[in-house]
C-alpha cells in the first residue's frame, strides 16, 4: 500500500496522437475525478470566438462557417501570455486579449477546398493546430473573406475551448470494491471483456474476503487531445488550475474559519 | 451487406450521370401520376381525343329560320337547317415563355415557375368544327387558354432529362416530377380509391329497403368505364314483388327504371317466353326460385298494364321520358332517343346491345341468387382513380360545357333576335363562339389550385372537393409519401362506422399495413406498398377472346350450355373486362386459368403479364362464380415469384384472394402453393421500410415512426437556393444512418439525410429525464448537434395594390432628395436597406426593422415597410421578378429569410421507433456520466421509455449502431432478417465482443459529478435521432400586458397577436374548488378587464351618470351626477370588470334594466 502521498505513473505519452496515458494512486476518488473534470473543462485554450464576414458566397451560411471556425483547434502553448477578454482593460478586444486570424479565399479557376491552412494568424504561435481541417468547399466563382478574433477561454463556457476530445477514466479493474454489478446472462467471463488495466492490479481470489471499507486507490486516465496543447501540458495546466482553485478555496475557508472563531456566540445565537 | 458507399456518393454528386437516373426505384415512385397524365395525349391511349369523339355526336342544333323551333319537330323536318358542332384534334404544346420577340422559342422550366410564383402551363387549342345540314365541314382553330402541365410528363420540358441536365435546369438530380405547379406551389392530384371497373358486385345494404315499399336490401352494382376512362355506375335493386329496378344517376340526378323495360329495349326477343328462356338458360328449371321470379317479373310488366311489350315501343317509351334530360337533338325520333339512353348510361363499357343483355342477365341472377355479398371496402373490388385520368375527364366535361353554352347562346339569339341567327354565315358562328367563355385553362388551373371539382355531371364521383393536395417539401420522406398515398374518399371520412377503415388481409402487398396516420384519417389515407404498381399502360388483349374460345369445353357467347342435372360441374361465365367471352364448366375453368397463367408468366401467345386472372369457383353461398379476366388500367398489381418457373408474375388484388402465395420459404405447401413473395418487406411502404428492425417493435410504434419520420427536420431538397416554399426546415448537420435497411440505398436516401447518429445512454440520471424528457449533452450542443435552420419566404407584389390599368407609380427605392426623410432617419434605414429599397443580403432583421422601401413617383415620398415577425432572421435571398417579356419596371420581389434554430430546451427529438421526447436540460459535459473509454453520451433517455412501449427495435438499433461505429461499417437493419435461430442480439453481440466491448451492449459508467462508478452497468449505444419540426420557438405563448379587445377590454387571444391563454370555465372551477378566491379574482378581474366605474348607489345603475363641467374656478373636480336621481351625492366609484358595463348597455338596448344593490 502506498503511504508516501500521491504517485503518478505515466505509461504512455504520444504527442503525435495527442495522447497521454497515466495513472494516479494515493489520492481520493474526488481528486482524481477533479483532475478529469479540470482537464476537460477548465484548461484555458484559444479558440475563434468572433467572426466578421466581409464576403461569403459559399453554400454554407455565415453562422455555420463561424461555428466551424470556432471548432478549429488553435495551438495554445502560449495561452498564458494572453489575458481573458473580461479581465482586459480594453474596450472590446485588443492584442493583449485576442489574436486575429484572416481568411480570404476565392475559387477563381476551379473548385477549391478552404482549409485551416488558409487561416492567416497575426500571432506567431497561436495558429491552427492542424492544416487540413476543411472549413468549406468553394465552387468556381465563390468567395469567402472574413476576419476572426480568437480569444482565451475555458470549455465550461463552450466546448470549443476544450483541449481534449475525451478523457478515459477508470479505477478498480477487478471490481474488488463492488461499486458496480456486472450484469451477465450466463458467463461473466465470456460476456464481459477484461479491462485494459486488469494486469496492473492483482485479481482477488475466490476466497478473498470482501473489504467493505476499502477505497479506490489507483486511477487510470487517458486523455486524447484536440491538438491545441501538448498532452503533457494539458495535465500540467489542469493540475495547476486545480491547485490554484484549491488554494483559493483554502484561503477563503481560513478566512471564514477565523471570522467564525471570533464570532462564535453570535453565530450560534443567530441560528 | 450494406455499405456507406461514400466514394460513390461523392463521385455521383461531382459528376452526375448524363444518361439516366441514379436511383430508378426512386424515379418510379411518381410513375402512376406521370404515366396517367401521358395517357391523355399518347398515341396509344389518347384519352382526350377519345373523349371528344364521344361527345361530338350529341351536339346538334336545329334552326328553322327562327320560327319553327317551337313547332312539332317531325312535321317541319324537311325545312329545318341543322348545324352540328364539335371539337377535334386537341393540341397542347410544351410550356414556353410567351410574347418573347425572338425567332427562337424560349422554353419555360418548372424552376422558373417556382421562383416566380407562376403556373407551369402551356397553350391548349383545338379545332372547332361545324357542319350545316350535309354541307362541308368548316373548321376554326380555337385557343382555349393555358392548361397546367405535369412536371416530367411528355408535355414537360424536363421529360427524360438526365441528372446532370436536371441540375442545369435547377432541379434536384433525382427530381421525379408527378406534380403540377400552380402559382409557384407544387400540387398533385391525390390517388383515390374507386370501385373496380366493369365488375359486378353484390351488395346487401339495409338502406336499400328504405327506398320505397316492396324494396329489399338486395342489390348489385357495376361501375362501367368507357374507353376514355369516364365512368357510369349502374345498379339493380331487387323488390319483394319480383320486380327489379335499374338505377343510375345522370347529371347528379338519380333515376329508377323497371329492368324489364331495359331488357325489352336491348334485344329483339319479341315474346315474353323468349326473354324467359334467354334468362333461364343454363340454370336448373326445377329450381322454381329463379323461374318463379322471372315469370313474376315478366307478368307484372305485361302489355295488359299498358307498358310497352316490344323493343320498339320500349325504346319509344324510354325516349319519351328521357328526351329532355339527354338534351338530344330535336330531329331524332323517340326510338332513337331511347337508343341513345342505352348507349349513354346502360353498361357503357360494352359496345353492342346484345353484350349488354347478357350482362344484365348475370346482374339479375346475382340479385336474385344465393351468393354472398361482396365487400366494397376490400381492395379486391377496388382500383385507383389516377390523377391524369381525372384531369382528362374534367377537361372533357369542360369541352362539353363549351358546346352546351354555345347551344344555349344560339337559343338565346333565336328567342331574342331571331333575325341574326344564320348558320350559313361563318361570321355569325364565330361571333357566337366569341361570346362564350372558352377558357378551359383557367378552369383546369382552378381545379388544381383548390381541388374543387366544379361539375354538372359529377363525373360519377362521390366528392366535390379535396382532389388535390400540396406536395409539401417538409422533408424528403413526407414529400415522397404524397405520391404514394391513396385516399378512400372524403365521403367515408364522415361515416360513423369504422368498417371502411379496417385493415383487410386482401390488401397484403398492395397497401402498407403500417403507414397510415392515427386520428381521423386513420385507415382512409393509406400508402402503397413499395413494390405495388398501378397499371397505366393499356394491355393488348386482342387475341385473348379467340384464345379462350379455342379451348375445348368453352362454348360461345350465344350458346350458353343447357343445365344438366347429371353433371356436377356448374357453368361459369368467362368475362374479359366485364364482357362475356364464353361459357365453360368449372373443371375447364381451372384448366384455362392455369394455362393462361403459364402463358402470361412466359409472355406466350400474346397474353400480357399484367393480365389478372381471377377464377372464382362455385362454393356454397360464396362469391359469385366465374372466370374474371381484367386487362384494364388503374389496377393495383404487385410482383411475386412464380414458383414453377422462378420467374416474376404480376398479381392483382382480385386474383390474389384466390391464389396460394407463400410469404416465407417455410410457408410453402407442396402441391398447393404456386407463388412466393420476393421479400416479406414487400408489404411495407417506402417510409415504413426505412424503420430499422421494425419487426422487433410493437406495431403502433412503427405507425408513430411513419408519422414522425415525415415531420422531422431533414433535407427537403438539394436545390434549396432555387426554392421559394413558404417554409422549409433544414437540418444542417444531417448524417447517413449507421444502421439502415438495404432500401435506404435503393431509394437514394443518402441524398436527403433526415437525422443524426447519436450516442444514447439509457439511464435515469438526474430526474430531468422523466416523462419522456431527455437530457442533451451541452458539449454536443456546442459542437453543432441537431442544428437546424428554417427558411421563410415572402412575395411582395406592388402591382397587387394597384388598380388594373392605372399607370405604375410605386417603385422599390430609397432616395434621399425630396423623400421627406430626415438625414438621421435615412442613415438608420441605410443600415438595413440599399438605395434600391431592398435589404442587404445577410442583414439581420428584428421586429420593426425596415424591410423594404417604396418610392411614390407622384409625390416623391418614400414609404418604409417594416419587418413584422417577432423572430430574428437573416435575409438569405432576394429575387427580382419581372414579367414574361422582361419589359416591366420591377414590381414584384421575393425575399427569403433564414431563421436559426439551434436546439433549445423544449425542442422535440425522436428515434426511429416512435420514441419521441423533449429536451429538458443542456447538461454540462463534465457532469454527464461517462464510460471507461471516456465516451460521453449525446443524449440521455430514461429506461422507463421501454417497458410499456416495447420498442425492442430501438434497443437492437443501439446495439447495431455501436458495433457499426466501432468497426466502421454500415449495418443492415432490414426487417425480418433475424429470427429465433439467428438472433440479432447474437449477431451484434459477437461484433461488440470482437471490438472489446460487453456482449450485451452494456458498459460500466461513472458519475460525472463524483467520479464514482454506478452500481448498475448502463446500456449505451448509437441510435439515429430525428429532430422534429415542433419547436418551442414556434409555440411558446407568454404575455404580461398587451393588446386588449376593444369592446370588452379583455386580453385578445392568439399567439401571433401577443394575446393571452384563455383562463376558461374549467380552470375557474378548479380554482373555486381549491378555495383560492384571491387568485381567482386576480385572474378573472385584475389581470383581465379591471376597470373603475361611477355608480349611483341610490338607484344602483352605472349607466345613468353624466359629467357636468363645473364653471366655478374654486374646484377642479367635475361634478358627476345621476341622470335618474338628478343629483350627484350618492355617486361612488366601484371596481367592475369592463365587460359588465358592456352587458349593462346591451341589456338596456333590450329594455332590461340592470340594477346593483349595495
UniProtKB/TrEMBL annotation, chain A:
One of its GO terms (biological process) is transcription by RNA polymerase II. Belongs to the archaeal Rpo3/eukaryotic RPB3 RNA polymerase subunit family. It comes from Clydaea vesicula. InterPro entries: DNA-dir_RNA_pol_30-40kDasu_CS (IPR001514), DNA-dir_RNA_pol_insert (IPR011262), DNA-dir_RNA_pol_RpoA/D/Rpb3 (IPR011263), RBP11-like (IPR036603), RNAP_Rpo3/Rpb3/RPAC1 (IPR022842), RNApol_insert_sf (IPR036643), Rpo3/RPB3_RNA_Pol_subunit (IPR050518). It is found in: Nucleus. This is DNA-directed RNA polymerase II subunit RPB3. Residues 19-252 form the DNA-directed RNA polymerase RpoA/D/Rpb3-type domain. The keyword Oxidoreductase does not apply. Keywords: DNA-directed RNA polymerase, Nucleus, Transcription. One of its GO terms (cellular component) is RNA polymerase II, core complex.
From TrEMBL, chain B:
It comes from the Eukaryota. GO terms for molecular function: DNA binding; DNA-directed RNA polymerase activity; ribonucleoside binding; zinc ion binding. Its main location: nucleus. GO terms for biological process: DNA-templated transcription. GO terms for cellular component: DNA-directed RNA polymerase complex; nucleolus. It is found in: Nucleus, Nucleolus. Residues 196-384, 469-534, 1059-1156 form the RNA polymerase Rpb2 domain. InterPro entries: DNA-dir_RNA_pol_su2, DNA-dir_RNAP_su2_dom, DNA-dir_RNAP_su2_hyb_sf, RNA_pol_bsu_CS, RNA_pol_bsu_protrusion, RNA_pol_Rpb2_2, RNA_pol_Rpb2_2_sf, RNA_pol_Rpb2_3. PROSITE patterns: RNA_POL_BETA. SUPFAM superfamilies: beta and beta-prime subunits of DNA dependent RNA-polymerase. Residues 687-1057 form the DNA-directed RNA polymerase subunit 2 hybrid-binding domain. CDD domains: RNA_pol_B_RPB2. Belongs to the RNA polymerase beta chain family. PANTHER family: DNA-DIRECTED RNA POLYMERASE I SUBUNIT 2. DNA-dependent RNA polymerase catalyzes the transcription of DNA into RNA using the four ribonucleoside triphosphates as substrates. This is DNA-directed RNA polymerase subunit beta.
Amino acid at each position: 500500500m502506498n503511504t508516501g502521498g500521491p504517485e503518478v505513473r505515466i505509461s504512455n505519452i504520444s504527442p503525435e496522437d495527442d495522447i497521454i496515458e497515466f495513472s494516479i494512486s494515493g489520492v481520493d476518488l474526488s481528486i482524481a475525478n477533479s483532475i478529469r473534470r479540470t482537464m476537460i473543462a477548465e484548461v484555458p485554450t484559444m479558440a475563434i470566438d468572433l467572426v466578421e464576414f466581409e464576403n461569403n458566397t459559399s453554400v454554407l451560411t455565415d453562422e455555420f462557417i463561424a461555428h466551424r471556425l470556432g471548432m478549429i483547434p488553435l495551438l495554445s502553448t502560449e495561452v498564458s501570455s494572453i489575458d481573458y477578454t473580461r479581465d482586459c482593460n480594453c474596450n472590446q478586444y485588443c492584442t493583449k486579449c485576442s489574436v486575429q486570424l484572416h481568411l480570404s479565399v476565392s475559387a477563381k479557376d476551379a473548385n477549391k477546398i478552404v482549409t485551416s491552412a488558409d487561416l492567416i494568424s497575426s500571432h506567431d504561435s497561436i495558429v491552427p493546430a492542424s492544416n487540413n481541417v476543411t472549413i468549406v468547399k468553394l465552387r468556381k466563382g465563390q468567395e469567402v473573406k472574413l476576419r476572426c478574433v480568437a480569444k482565451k477561454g475555458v470549455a465550461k463556457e463552450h466546448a470549443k475551448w476544450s483541449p481534449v476530445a475525451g478523457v478515459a477514466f477508470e479505477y478498480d479493474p477487478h471490481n474488488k470494491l463492488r461499486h458496480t454489478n456486472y450484469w451477465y446472462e450466463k458467463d461473466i467471463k465470456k460476456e464481459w471483456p477484461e479491462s485494459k488495466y486488469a494486469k496492473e492490479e492483482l485479481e482477488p481470489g475466490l476466497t478473498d474476503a470482501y473489504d467493505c471499507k476499502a477505497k479506490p486507490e489507483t486511477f487510470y486516465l487517458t486523455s486524447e487531445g484536440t491538438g491545441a496543447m501538448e498532452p503533457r501540458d494539458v495535465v500540467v495546466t489542469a493540475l495547476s488550475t486545480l491547485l490554484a482553485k484549491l488554494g483559493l478555496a483554502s484561503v477563503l475557508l481560513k478566512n471564514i474559519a477565523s471570522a467564525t472563531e471570533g464570532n462564535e456566540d453570535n453565530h450560534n445565537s443567530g441560528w | 451487406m450494406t455499405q456507406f458507399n461514400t466514394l460513390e456518393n461523392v463521385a455521383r454528386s461531382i459528376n452526375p450521370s448524363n444518361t439516366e437516373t441514379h436511383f430508378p426505384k426512386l424515379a418510379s415512385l411518381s410513375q402512376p401520376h406521370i404515366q396517367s397524365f401521358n395517357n391523355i395525349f399518347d398515341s396509344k391511349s389518347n384519352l382526350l381525343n377519345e373523349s371528344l369523339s364521344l361527345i361530338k355526336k350529341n351536339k346538334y342544333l336545329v334552326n328553322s329560320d327562327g320560327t319553327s323551333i317551337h313547332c312539332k319537330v317531325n312535321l317541319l323536318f324537311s325545312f329545318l337547317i341543322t348545324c352540328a358542332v364539335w371539337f377535334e384534334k386537341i393540341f397542347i404544346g410544351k410550356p414556353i415563355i410567351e410574347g418573347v420577340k425572338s425567332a427562337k422559342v424560349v422554353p419555360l422550366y418548372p424552376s422558373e415557375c417556382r421562383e416566380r410564383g407562376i403556373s407551369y402551363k402551356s397553350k391548349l387549342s383545338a379545332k372547332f368544327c361545324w357542319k350545316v345540314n350535309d354541307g362541308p365541314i368548316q373548321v376554326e382553330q380555337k385557343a382555349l387558354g393555358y392548361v397546367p402541365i405535369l412536371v416530367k410528363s411528355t408535355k414537360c420540358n424536363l421529360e427524360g432529362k438526365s441528372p446532370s441536365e436536371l441540375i442545369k435546369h435547377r432541379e434536384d438530380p433525382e427530381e421525379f416530377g408527378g406534380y403540377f405547379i400552380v402559382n409557384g406551389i407544387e400540387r398533385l392530384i391525390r390517388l383515390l380509391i374507386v370501385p373496380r371497373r366493369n365488375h359486378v358486385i353484390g351488395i346487401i345494404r339495409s338502406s336499400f329497403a328504405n327506398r320505397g315499399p316492396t324494396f329489399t336490401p338486395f342489390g348489385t352494382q357495376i361501375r362501367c368505364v368507357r374507353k376514355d376512362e369516364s365512368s357510369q355506375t349502374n345498379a339493380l335493386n331487387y323488390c319483394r314483388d319480383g320486380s327489379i329496378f335499374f338505377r343510375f344517376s345522370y347529371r347528379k340526378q338519380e333515376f329508377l327504371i323497371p329492368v324489364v323495360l331495359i331488357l325489352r329495349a336491348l334485344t329483339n326477343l319479341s315474346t315474353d317466353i323468349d326473354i324467359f328462356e334467354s334468362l333461364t338458360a343454363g340454370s336448373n328449371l326445377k329450381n322454381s326460385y329463379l323461374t318463379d321470379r322471372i315469370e313474376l317479373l315478366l307478368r307484372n310488366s305485361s302489355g295488359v298494364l299498358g307498358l310497352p311489350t316490344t323493343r320498339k315501343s320500349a325504346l319509344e317509351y324510354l325516349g319519351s321520358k328521357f328526351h329532355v334530360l339527354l338534351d338530344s337533338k330535336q330531329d331524332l325520333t323517340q326510338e332513337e332517343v331511347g337508343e341513345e339512353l342505352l348507349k349513354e348510361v346502360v353498361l357503357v363499357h360494352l359496345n353492342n346491345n346484345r353484350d349488354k343483355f347478357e350482362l344484365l342477365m348475370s346482374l339479375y341472377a346475382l340479385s336474385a341468387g344465393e351468393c354472398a355479398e361482396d365487400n366494397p371496402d376490400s381492395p379486391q373490388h377496388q382500383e385507383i382513380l389516377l390523377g391524369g385520368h381525372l384531369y382528362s375527364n374534367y377537361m372533357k366535361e369542360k369541352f362539353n360545357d363549351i358546346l352546351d353554352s354555345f347551344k344555349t347562346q344560339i337559343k338565346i339569339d333565336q328567342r331574342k333576335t331571331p333575325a341574326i341567327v344564320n348558320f350559313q354565315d361563318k361570321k355569325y358562328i364565330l361571333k357566337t363562339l366569341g361570346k362564350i367563355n372558352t377558357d378551359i385553362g383557367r378552369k383546369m388551373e382552378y381545379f388544381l389550385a383548390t381541388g374543387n371539382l366544379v361539375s354538372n355531371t359529377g363525373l360519377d364521383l362521390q366528392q366535390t372537393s379535396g382532389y388535390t393536395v400540396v406536395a409539401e417539401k417538409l422533408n424528403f420522406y413526407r414529400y415522397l409519401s404524397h405520391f404514394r398515398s391513396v385516399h378512400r374518399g372524403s365521403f367515408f371520412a364522415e361515416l360513423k362506422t369504422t368498417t371502411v377503415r379496417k385493415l383487410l388481409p386482401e390488401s397484403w402487398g398492395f397497401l402498407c399495413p403500417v403507414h397510415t396516420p392515427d386520428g381521423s384519417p386513420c385507415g382512409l389515407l393509406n400508402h402503397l406498398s413499395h413494390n405495388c404498381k398501378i397499371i397505366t399502360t393499356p394491355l393488348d388483349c386482342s387475341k385473348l377472346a379467340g384464345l379462350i374460345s379455342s379451348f375445348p369445353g368453352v362454348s360461345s357467347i350465344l350458346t350458353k350450355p343447357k343445365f344438366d342435372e347429371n353433371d356436377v360441374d356448374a357453368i361459369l361465365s368467362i368475362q374479359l373486362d366485364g364482357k362475356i367471352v364464353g361459357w365453360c364448366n368449372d373443371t375447364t375453368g381451372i384448366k384455362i386459368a392455369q394455362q393462361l397463367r403459364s402463358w402470361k408468366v412466359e409472355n406466350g401467345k400474346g397474353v400480357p403479364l399484367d393480365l389478372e386472372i381471377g377464377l372464382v369457383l362455385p362454393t356454397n353461398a360464396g362469391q359469385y362464380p366465374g372466370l374474371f379476366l381484367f386487362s384494364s388500367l388503374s389496377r393495383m398489381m404487385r410482383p411475386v415469384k412464380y414458383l414453377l418457373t422462378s420467374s416474376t408474375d404480376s398479381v392483382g388484388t382480385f386474383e390474389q384472394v384466390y391464389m396460394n402465395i407463400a410469404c416465407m420459404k417455410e410457408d410453402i405447401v407442396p402441391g398447393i402453393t404456386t407463388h412466393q413473395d420476393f421479400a416479406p418487406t414487400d408489404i411495407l411502404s417506402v417510409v415504413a421500410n426505412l424503420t430499422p428492425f421494425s419487426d422487433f417493435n410493437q406495431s403502433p410504434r412503427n405507425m408513430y415512426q411513419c408519422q414522425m419520420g415525415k415531420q422531422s427536420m431533414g433535407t427537403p431538397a438539394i436545390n434549396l437556393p432555387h426554392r421559394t416554399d413558404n417554409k422549409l426546415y433544414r437540418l444542417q448537420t444531417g448524417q447517413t444512418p449507421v444502421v439502415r435497411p438495404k432500401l435506404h440505398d435503393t431509394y437514394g436516401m443518402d441524398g436527403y439525410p433526415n437525422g443524426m447518429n447519436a450516442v444514447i445512454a439509457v439511464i435515469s440520471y438526474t430526474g430531468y429525464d422523466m416523462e419522456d424528457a431527455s437530457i442533451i449533452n451541452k458539449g454536443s450542443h456546442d459542437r453543432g448537434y441537431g442544428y437546424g435552420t428554417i427558411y421563410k419566404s415572402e412575395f411582395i407584389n406592388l402591382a397587387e395594390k394597384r388598380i388594373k390599368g392605372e399607370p405604375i407609380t410605386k417603385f422599390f427605392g430609397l432616395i434621399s432628395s425630396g423623400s421627406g426623410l430626415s438625414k438621421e432617419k435615412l442613415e438608420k434605414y441605410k443600415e438595413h436597406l440599399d438605395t434600391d429599397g431592398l435589404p442587404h443580403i445577410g442583414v439581420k432583421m428584428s421586429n420593426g426593422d425596415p424591410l423594404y422601401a417604396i418610392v411614390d413617383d407622384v409625390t416623391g415620398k418614400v414609404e418604409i415597410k417594416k419587418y413584422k415577425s417577432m423572430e430574428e432572421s437573416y435575409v438569405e435571398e432576394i429575387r427580382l421578378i419581372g414579367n414574361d417579356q422582361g419589359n416591366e419596371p420591377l414590381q414584384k420581389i421575393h425575399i427569403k429569410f433564414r431563421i436559426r434554430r439551434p436546439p433549445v430546451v423544449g425542442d422535440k427529438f425522436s428515434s426511429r421507433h416512435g420514441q419521441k421526447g423533449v429536451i429538458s436540460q443542456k447538461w454540462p459535459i463534465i457532469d454527464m456520466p461517462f464510460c471507461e473509454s471516456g465516451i460521453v453520451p449525446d443524449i440521455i433517455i430514461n429506461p422507463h421509455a421501454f417497458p410499456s412501449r416495447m420498442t425492442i427495435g430501438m434497443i437492437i438499433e443501439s446495439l447495431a449502431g455501436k458495433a457499426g461505429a466501432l468497426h466502421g461499417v454500415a449495418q443492415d437493419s432490414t426487417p425480418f432478417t433475424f429470427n429465433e435461430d439467428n438472433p440479432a442480439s447474437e449477431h451484434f453481440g459477437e461484433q461488440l465482443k470482437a471490438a472489446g466491448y460487453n456482449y450485451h451492449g452494456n458498459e460500466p459508467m461513472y458519475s460525472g459529478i463524483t467520479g464514482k462508478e454506478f452500481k448498475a452497468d448502463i446500456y449505451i449505444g448509437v441510435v439515429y435521432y430525428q429532430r422534429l419540426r415542433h419547436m418551442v420557438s414556434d409555440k411558446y405563448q407568454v404575455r404580461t400586458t398587451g393588446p386588449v379587445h376593444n369592446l370588452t377590454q379583455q386580453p385578445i387571444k392568439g399567439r401571433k397577436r401577443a394575446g393571452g391563454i384563455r383562463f376558461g370555465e374549467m380552470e375557474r372551477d378548479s380554482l373555486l374548488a381549491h378555495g383560492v378566491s384571491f387568485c381567482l379574482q386576480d385572474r378573472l378581474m385584475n389581470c383581465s378587464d379591471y376597470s373603475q366605474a361611477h355608480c349611483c348607489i341610490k338607484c344602483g345603475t352605472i349607466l345613468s351618470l353624466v359629467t357636468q363641467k363645473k364653471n366655478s374656478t374654486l374646484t377642479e373636480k367635475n361634478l358627476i351626477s345621476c341622470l335618474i336621481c338628478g343629483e350627484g351625492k350618492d355617486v361612488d366609484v366601484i371596481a367592475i370588470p369592463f365587460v359588465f358595463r358592456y352587458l349593462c348597455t346591451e341589456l338596456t338596448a333590450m329594455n332590461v334594466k340592470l340594477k346593483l344593490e349595495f
